[in-house]
Specification:
CATH architecture: Alpha-Beta Barrel
Strand content: 5-15%
Number of helices: 13
CATH class: Alpha Beta
CATH superfamily: Aldolase class I
Radius of gyration: 19 Å
Strand order of the largest sheet: 4-11-10-9-8-7-6-5
Largest sheet: 8 strands, parallel
Distance between the termini: 31 Å
CATH topology: TIM Barrel
């Protein structure tokens, strides 16, 4: 439905993946390849899917990932996305490149975390972070996987001028102009030390998004991260990257109880959510399912996605013999990939 409504360059951008594009379907397939070991004779009269994420209560462990160019999907962009998230008492990730004012996102009532790309001109990152904090962001998602270069046919930089092309509008035109033409490019000099820099700048917990190795996860936590997000940027990091279904167990083992672990990329149904929780994720982020739904039916579409995934999770929990999100344990999973 969304593809019929969207211009080809927008639909192409939303669906694009790195390299040959094979990493995206392979990542989904790895989640689907997981097999379970259900329990029996457990009291399942009260199935509870509520949990907390960095102390924030949520009614579902299905959260919405930060995604750019949402105004190209729907005229209300993150405002519609936030309203749906608030309705389901979930949590919203907000992109550095959002074209919607932070004040409008905050007004939806959804708790939100701000996704941070550190720019070459760090004063721009500092301004964005400070403004996000002022409008109620509860955590920062430092994104460290460098997205693959996209084809000019779908790269937003080459889109025709339109409201959907806007980015970083929480900075003023004067601020962007003063910084120079390359100032908004991603800073390739990032190190683990920048985790504490962002924490001190914002006063917020910092999660590191794009971690798929145990050693990196452990170093993030030692450097002050409150959590990590196992992510391949929805298959955009690089084509032959390991999938998040395969990477999650080693990251969870490396982090232990010292930080919270989240996962995204390829989560498409309640069984996938259950598998992630069993392997130790605190919650999952969904991206494209919410974005396509936003394009197709606005707030109502996103609401349907969150309701469907949460209902499916509750049904899987009944079959697994798990009455609460806290009852998931690794022994429920027999296989973690193909």
């Amino acid at each position: 439905m969304a593809r019929e409504l969207l211009p080809p360059h927008v639909a192409g951008y939303f669906s694009a993946a790195a390299g040959t594009g094979a990493g995206l379907p392979e990542g989904i397939a790895d989640w689907s390849a997981i097999r379970f070991r259900p329990r029996v004779l457990r009291d399942l009269s009260d199935i509870r899917v509520a949990t907390t994420v960095l102390g924030t209560p949520v009614s579902t462990p299905v959260l919405v990932a930060p995604m750019a160019q949402q105004l190209a999907a729907h005229p209300d962009g993150e405002t519609a996305m936030g309203r749906a998230v608030a309705k389901h008492r979930s949590l919203l990730g907000v992109s550095t490149n959002t074209a919607v004012p932070f004040a409008d996102i905050a007004a939806t009532g959804a708790p939100w975390w701000f996704q941070v790309y550190v720019t070459r001109d760090r004063s721009l990152t500092e301004l964005l972070v400070q403004r996000a904090v002022a409008h109620g962001a509860r955590a920062l998602l430092l994104t460290v996987d460098m997205m693959a270069l996209l084809s000019p046919t779908v790269n937003p930089r080459f889109w025709p001028d339109s409201v959907g092309k806007a980015r970083m509008t929480n900075l003023t035109a004067d601020e962007l102009a003063a910084a120079g033409p390359d100032a908004t490019e991603m800073d390739l000099s990032l190190t683990f030390d920048d985790i504490s820099w962002l924490a001190q700048l914002s006063g917020l917990p910092v999660l590191v998004k794009g971690v798929i190795r145990a050693d990196d996860a452990a170093e993030c936590v030692r450097s002050g991260a409150a959590g990590v997000i196992v992510s391949t940027h929805g298959g955009r990091r690089m084509g032959p990257s390991v999938s998040t279904a395969r990477a999650l167990p080693e990251v969870v083992e490396a982090v232990g109880d010292s930080a919270e672990v989240y996962v995204d990329s390829g989560i498409r149904n309640g069984e996938h959510v259950a598998a992630a929780l069993a392997m130790g994720a605190r919650a999952v982020f969904v991206g494209r399912p919410a974005l396509w739904a936003l394009a197709a039916r606005g707030e109502a579409g996103v609401s349907d996605v969150l309701a469907t995934l949460t209902t499916e999770l509750a049904q899987v929990m009944l079959q697994l013999g798990v009455s609460s999100v806290g009852g998931f344990t690794p022994d429920l999973v027999a296989s973690t990939g193909r």
